[in-house]
Structure formats: structure tokens, C-alpha cells
Write a structure and sequence with these properties.
The chain has 3 domains: 139 residues, FAD/NAD(P)-binding domain; 119 residues, FAD/NAD(P)-binding domain (3-Layer(bba) Sandwich), CATH 3.50.50; 116 residues, FAD/NAD-linked reductase, C-terminal dimerisation domain (Enolase-like, domain 1, 2-Layer Sandwich), CATH 3.30.390. 31% of the residues lie in helices and 25% in strands. The chain is built from 12 helices and 24 strands. A hairpin with a 2-residue loop joins strand 5 and strand 6. The longest helix has 24 residues. The protein is globular, with a radius of gyration of 24 Å.
Length: 470
């Protein structure tokens, strides 16, 4: 039952990172805007993503460092004790603090600009908003931004585990650490949480398929990364699962190991880190006439975020194009601006791509991936961090970097690597890619001594030498 009608210029479905950016952009362009949210305020990053995961990783790094001081001649007497309740208490307290900042910013938005409920398209610019069984509001807009985010994808066979099956959202609500966890999916989430839990004393086995390690596409870097992680915890990157089941309050998994032997292990929990699905089901997109892809996501222009020629725009995790916080913020701004100026739309800002996995060693990718490059059109520079000076000083000397340069112009195209302080080097390389610098120009930049970035210089010199001989 509809109890009221609201009119607005721009209706925004979702109040996460992309939705908030879209709202601010629409308002800045002089339009009325309405934020529609069916769940609690607070972004995916703050609630269940980048911030709570880094809090867990920070605890894991503290535990790992405490166990590995002897090589420096520093000996810690007694047992390193990890209190799972204290670990998770800090994770939740700090997580709630970060969420609080987001909620506070939303609280500052006028009440008449916000509407609680789940939205469903009636037509291209009309939305029905409310909760199941409750009164509904009809929102009549002239433009709509879809910024509904994404949710963890759970393959049907995993449901056999019942309440022993968890996703990353659940991990950050644990009151203490479990004894054992099987992790499926060695992508960013699985790799980060799997290693962190292992370092915090949890028995972890990480299962993958087709040999993948994080987002890496360069075969040599991927193989190096696989060996690094396998040396620390149980990691089956190309798992052959024979059976999955439940025995009491335990998850039971039977699989084959490298020598072909069949092994059965039990776990307290199974963490499904098998990707995320755009939150588009239930939006009533069939009522819009938009063309949809196989996932049900509207086809859209990645530069303008516009869906076809309609007054509908899609941004952030909902379009699953580049599901990263900074990309969601940029897309939200583009969507909000173009919604405000529609039917005139313009390409928004697309920065050089940058992605970081906060494993140890860290993994990073900048610019074009190895898989994106045309064979024969580029040359590769390499550096191993195993003998890199600063890395050896810190005993953080595991890593392999590949940088890619255009064979004709000498311009930096991208890089993939695993190594120490990758999060910092990634920014240097992303800036270089965005500025379209050549390898020669990058080598003219200052490098201090002794720093980890000298490893980058070694890789650049390797590229430069190959460019002169080709």
C-alpha cells in the first residue's frame, strides 16, 4: 500500500561510498537528490571490508613479528599468547569507530533527502520504496543512480555446511577466534583473511581452483607467490575436492593433495571467499527495458556510467567494473554529476588502476596487467627482493616484481609483483602510469639509499637495457 509520493530530480539507490558521492555531486550541481537505503548506514569498506580486515591483519602482523625476533638477536622469553577475545574486541571496537564516522556524515544530510526502504523500479524513473509487509512510498524522479553495492557470492554446494559456513561479514562479528577454518577462494579476501587467521594461531587451509593466487595474472610472479604462501600455511591453489559435508558442529572436507592421496579434515568453519555479486536482483530492472548482461547487471558506459541512453546510471560495486573504494567514489561522482546534467553526459575521471593485497609479502598491480598486454608489444623488467639491500636488512626479503614497458615508446604500461612495502611502491608506479612517463624519465627521478624502492630502480634498469637491445 502506497502512503505517500515523493518527487525529486535524482533518486539514488544505496548510501554506500558510490551513493554518497553521487548524492554530493548531484547536490553540488544544483539538483534535488534523494538517498534510498534499505540497510544500516555505513559503507562496505568500513563495516565488513577494507577497515576491519586491516585491523585483523594488524593483529596478525604483531603476532608474526613477535615470533620472528630471534634472527635479529632479540629473544623473547616465554610463550607468545594470543587472546582471541581481545583480538576480536579491538577489531569490532575500531570497526565501529570507522563506521561511526560514516554514519555521522550521513546524519548531517537533511532528513528530507533520505528515505529508508528497499527500492524497486516501476519504470525508468519511478521507484517503489519500502520494506516487505510495510507501507510503500512512490518516488518519482527524472534520473536514477543505482549504487546498491554487492554481497558475498555463495556457491550452492557450500550450503551443505549450514551454520558452519561464513562469509567475511561474519568473521568480523566473531567474539573470539576459532580453532580451525577452511577458506575457499585465494582472491584478495581469502588470501588476506586466511593468512591473518593462520598467524593468529588458527588452523587454516586455503583452497583454490586453476592455480590462482590473489589477482595476479603474470605466471612467474603468480608461481613465486604460491611458493611463498605455501611455505607458511596449508594452501591448495588447484584443489581437487572429493566431498563436502557436516558432522555435528564440524565441517568435513575430503580432498586430494599433491601426491594424489585422499585426505579428510574437519574444521570449525568454512569461509566462502568466492567473490561478490552485484546487488541488482530484486530491483525490478525488468521494468526499465534496459539491456542486461548474464548477471542481470545493466549494460553501461564505463566512462559515463550511463545505462544505454536512459536517465539511469550505475556506479560502485553494483556494476562490478572496478570494485574498489576509490573507484566507487570516482564512479559515484561521475554518476551523480551526469545524472544532474542529463541528457548531457560526459566521461568522468578514470585514474590509473591500482590494486593492493595486504598479505605478507604484499601483492600489487598497477596499470595494465600482464593478461591485458599484447605479446611482442612490450618488454618486462624484473627484480628479486631476496637480495635487495633494505629488504634484507629488515628480513623482509621475499618478493618478485615485473614491470612492463611499451617496446616502441618506452612508456611504462604497468606492473605486477609481490614484495615488501608494495602498497607504497604501487602509488609511485600508478602516478607514473597516469603521467605516461617513460622508463628513462622514471630513472631520472631521485632514489634514496637504502630504501626498498631501489628494487624498483633495478627493475626499471632491466627494462631500459632490454629496450636498447630490441
Amino acid at each position: 500500500m502506497t502512503n505517500q509520493i515523493i518527487t525529486t530530480d535524482v533518486a539514488i539507490i544505496g548510501a554506500g561510498t558510490a551513493g554518497l558521492a553521487a548524492y554530493r555531486a548531484a547536490i553540488a550541481n544544483g539538483k534535488r537528490a534523494l538517498l534510498i537505503e534499505g540497510g544500516p548506514y555505513g559503507t562496505t569498506c568500513a563495516r565488513v571490508g577494507c577497515m576491519p580486515s586491516k585491523l585483523l591483519i594488524a593483529a596478525a602482523e604483531a603476532a608474526h613479528e613477535a615470533r620472528h625476533t630471534a634472527a635479529f638477536g632479540v629473544h623473547i622469553d616465554g610463550e607468545i599468547r594470543i587472546d582471541g577475545r581481545e583480538v576480536m574486541d579491538r577489531v569490532k571496537r575500531e570497526r565501529d569507530r570507522f563506521v561511526g564516522f560514516v554514519v555521522k556524515s550521513v546524519d548531517g544530510i537533511p532528513a528530507e533527502h533520505k528515505l529508508a526502504g528497499f527500492a524497486r523500479f516501476v519504470d525508468n524513473t519511478t521507484l517503489q520504496v519500502g520494506f516487505d509487509g510495510g507501507e510503500q512510498t512512490l518516488v518519482q524522479a527524472t534520473r536514477v543512480v543505482i549504487a546498491s553495492g554487492s554481497s558475498p557470492a555463495i556457491p550452492e554446494p557450500f550450503k551443505v555446511f549450514g551454520d558452519r559456513l561464513v562469509v567475511n561479514d561474519d568473521v568480523f562479528n566473531w567474539d573470539t577466534l576459532p580453532h580451525s577454518v577452511a577458506v575457499f577462494g585465494p582472491g584478495v579476501i581469502g588470501l588476506e583473511l586466511g593468512q591473518a587467521l593462520s598467524r593468529l594461531g588458527v588452523k587454516v587451509r586455503l583452497f583454490g581452483v586453476r592455480g590462482g593466487v590473489g589477482p595476479l595474472t603474470d605466471p612467474q610472479v603468480r608461481d613465486y607467490a604460491k611458493s611463498v604462501f605455501q611455505s607458511e600455511f596449508a594452501f591448495n591453489p588447484d584443489a581437487q575436492i572429493e566431498h563436502m559435508g557436516r558432522n555435528g558442529d564440524k565441517a568435513v572436507i575430503t580432498f586430494r593433495v599433491a601426491n594424489g592421496e585422499s585426505v579428510t579434515e574437519t574444521f570449525d568453519y568454512v569461509l566462502a571467499a568466492t567473490g561478490r555479486t552485484p546487488n541488482v536482483r530484486g530491483l525490478g530492472l525488468e521494468n526499465t527495458g534496459l539491456a542486461l548482461d548474464e548477471r542481470g547487471v545493466p549494460l553501461f558506459n564505463a566512462d559515463t556510467t550511463q545505462c544505454g541512453t536512459s536517465p539511469i546510471f550505475i556506479a560502485g560495486d553494483a556494476n562490478n567494473f572496478l570494485p574498489l573504494l576509490h573507484e566507487a567514489a570516482d564512479e559515484g561522482k561521475t554518476a551523480g554529476t551526469n545524472a544532474a546534467t542529463w541528457p548531457q553526459v560526459n566521461p568522468g575521471l578514470r585514474r590509473a588502476t591500482i590494486a593492493v593485497v595486504f598479505s605478507d609479502p604484499q601483492i600489487a598491480m598497477v596499470g595494465k596487467r600482464f593478461a591485458d598486454l599484447i605479446p611482442g608489444s612490450f618488454v618486462t623488467g624484473e627484480v628479486s627482493f631476496e637480495d635487495q639491500g633494505r629488504s634484507r636488512v629488515m628480513l623482509r626479503n621475499k618478493g618478485l616484481m615485473h614491470v612492463y614497458a611499451d617496446r616502441q615508446t618506452g612508456r611504462l604500461l604497468g606492473a605486477e609483483w609481490i614484495g615488501p612495502r608494495a602498497e607504497n611502491i604501487a602509488h609511485l608506479l600508478a602516478w607514473a602510469v597516469q603521467q605516461q612517463l617513460t622508463i628513462a624519465q622514471m630513472l631520472d627521478m631521485p632514489f634514496y639509499h637504502p630504501v626498498v624502492e631501489e628494487g624498483l630502480r633495478t627493475a626499471l634498469r632491466d627494462v631500459a637495457a632490454k629496450l636498447t637491445t630490441n
